[in-house]
Amino acid sequence: MVDMICDYYSTVGQQRVKPGVEPGFLRGQLPASPPEQPEAFEDVLRDVQEKLMPGVVHWQSPSFFAYFPSNTSFPAALADMWAGALSMIGFSWAASPVSTELEMAMMDWLAELCGLPAAFRCNGGAGPGGGVIQGTTSEAVLVALLAARARALRGRVQADKLRLVAYSSDQAHSCFRKACMVAGVDHVRMLPTSAEHNWELQPEVLQAAIDADLAAGLLPCFVMATIGTTSSCAVDPVARLAPVAARRVSNGLGRAGGCGAWLHVDAAYAGAAALLPEQRSAHFGDLGAVDSYSFNPHKWLLVNFDCCALWVADAGPLKEALSLTPVFLQATGNALDYKDWQIPLGRRFRSLKLYFVLRMYGAEKLRAYLRHHIALAAAFAAALQADPRFELAAPQRFGLVCFRLRDVPRQVNAALLEAVNASGRLLIIHTELGGAYTLRLAVGSASTQLEHVEAAWEVIKGAADQVLRQHAERTAAEAPAAVPARA
Ligand SMILES: *Cc1c(COP(=O)(O)O)cnc(C)c1O
């Protein structure tokens, strides 16, 4: 199996990134029912190669530039093999002490590498804050929202649940809206952004929305800012949003207290860049007033899926929202039980892959790795800007470049995307920015080198020649026939 994986990595760069299969391709290739008797490992592996691999999109291809990267590495994969072998369910300290203790240590290591505020450290579970590994950002955002809701409802009546409001920009990931759906927060404000402000949420816009909701008798509860939006890697000005979010709302019951809205920062993809001091000072700013912060090492930090790092400055509200202790789980005087920091009870030993990756690469190599991708993205953006047919659709940030052919109808850019991906030589996706069709190229596959980015640019230029020629021919054909000259 390990040989097969090594062979795969050494040839994946030559394969079509996206397979040419149609929906239902696997039906008819598998027996309709599971086997009654055991089958040989060789037969299973052969079917993996022959039947399953043709349906794989090669996310590990050096020419995979779609979505955001989904990194993996040998240290991470090997750690996950060991975690799979142990398969212990470390929901509490007692259920497997090493699970909790390694996770606290790794979250503190990661917090230090990213320069996060001291309040986010686990300090061995002494509190009040700390970090926890969730499966995905979607779970982290939901957990943060549940904590926010618990805190906002302190000292309030049941009916107040219906008055809670959550805010983000209209560029926030759909997981924000989904978290509101799941948590039953019905008042959801996805506030407008504009090209003028590079698709960043402006504090005045948040302030106006909060004021309007307060005037209408609602309760601002949760603000989600994004560092590195999925569409364009826009960076919301967290330090300037924090005081707006924090304005205290009285709980109306005459008690001391009431609180401001909880501020969560979603840095799912871009959070890895916080390892770089220059990126940190340019894009992350002061996170000191943030209630919770999350990013996915499984995107751009060489840790295979799934691994989302979530930190909270105060775990109290999280535990109010999520802790329940049936008799069979009663603790034996321990530091911290991660079952109270997440939705499921069971949890994998995910900290092991962080431990392997952080030790076997070391911070210096990880920084070089991230800088390498950022430089490749900058090189692509520079090539693009030197070609007058193209324009950047947003400032180039981290490993992402958003671009389009300028001054053409949207279907020409759509045709460009289709032609590029049909080549099979790379894979990119598109987004909408201000209603404009926009292509996005995200550099970040573990094996991507300059040659792959240069080859991608050649394919894109060639496809642009083709779609612009077709567009010119179509325009000429549709133009009104010239008025015949009179004799
Ligand atoms: C990828 C991404 C998400 C979703 O991440 P999951 O871990 O798949 O839930 C959320 N927010 C941003 C900004 C992302 O880029």
TrEMBL record:
Would I find Lyase among this entry's keywords?
yes
- Pfam families membership: Pyridoxal_deC
Q: Does the keyword Metal-binding apply?
A: no
* Keywords assigned: Decarboxylase, Lyase, Pyridoxal phosphate
Give the record's GO CC terms: cytoplasm
At what positions is N6-(pyridoxal phosphate)lysine found? K299
GO terms under biological process: amino acid metabolic process; carboxylic acid metabolic process
Q: Sorted alphabetically, which InterPro entries does this protein's record hold?
A: Aromatic_deC, PyrdxlP-dep_de-COase, PyrdxlP-dep_Trfase, PyrdxlP-dep_Trfase_major, PyrdxlP-dep_Trfase_small
Q: Needs which cofactor?
A: pyridoxal 5'-phosphate
Gene Ontology MF annotations: carboxy-lyase activity; pyridoxal phosphate binding
Q: Which family does it belong to?
A: Belongs to the group II decarboxylase family.
Q: Which PANTHER family match?
A: GROUP II PYRIDOXAL-5-PHOSPHATE DECARBOXYLASE, MIP05841P
Name this polypeptide is given: Aromatic-L-amino-acid decarboxylase
